[in-house]
Amino acid sequence: MAERERVVSRAVEVVEAARAARVRTFFLRHVTLPPELMGASQLRMWRTWQRAEKAAEVVSPFPPAAPQTQIVPELRPTDREAVVEKVTMSAFEGTWLDIVLRDCGITTVVVIGVATEIGIEPTVRHAADLGYVPVLVTDACAGGDAEATERSLAALRFAGDALLTTTEEFRSVLASR
């Protein structure tokens, strides 16, 4: 619970700083289809994660209306912000996010949220592959598995194509603009 409160608090600071600086802000949430509509890769992944013997035993863990897929109230998007739903690990794969960012001339993306080892790292890597400068605010992120989270952060540091920073540093940069 303390980890959740810390990360939500930092995320709120990042979002408030972005809003104050009039930075375009997009929220993302991972949703899952009903198992009957999932393709082979989705069924294979969820079968593994749920330790199900057969694909027919897979349960959709993140239906769009479920409480666990909602953006926390502390970070509720405003009318001037958008929510992107994704079914893949990267926020860019299969969504309209890249088209909108390019159309707005955006070259840098700042990433915060959960889960570092599952959705954050693939999004940061994909952003770099697409030519963006990804900025990861590490203390405004959380993971489900501490060791996997540390491996993800270490891998991103090693690759060198993302900037890793803190909430305080991010706020300072925006305040100096």
The general outline is globular
Distance between the termini: 35 Å
Helix content: 40-55%
Beta-strand content bin: 15-25%
Gyration radius (Cα, Å) is 17 Å
Structural class: alpha/beta
**How many beta strands in the DSSP annotation?**
5
- The average pLDDT score comes to 95
User: Major sheet, described briefly?
Assistant: 3 strands, parallel
Question: Would you list the SSEs in sequence order as H and E?
Answer: HEHEHEHEHEH
Spatial ordering of strands, largest sheet: 3-4-5
Question: What's the structural blueprint in terms of helices and strands?
Answer:
Blueprint: H1 2-20, E1 26-30, H2 40-49, E2 82-86, H3 97-103, E3 108-114, H4 116-129, E4 133-142, H5 146-159, E5 163-165, H6 167-175
Parallel strand pairs: 1-2, 3-4, 4-5
Helix pairs in contact: 1-6, 4-5
Describe what you observe in this structure.
The protein has 177 residues and is α/β, with parallel strands linked by helices. It has six helices and five strands, in the order αβαβαβαβαβα. A three-stranded parallel β-sheet has the order 3-4-5. Strands 1-2 form a two-stranded parallel sheet. Helix 1 runs parallel beside helix 6. The termini are far apart.
Q: Which descriptors would you attach to this protein?
A:
about 180 residues; globular; alpha/beta; 6 helices
Compose a concise summary of this entry.
By secondary structure, the protein is an alpha/beta fold. It is built from 6 helices and 5 strands. It has helices at about 1-20, 40-50, 95-105, 115-130, 145-160, 165-175; strands spanning about 25-30, 80-85, 110-115, 135-140, 165.
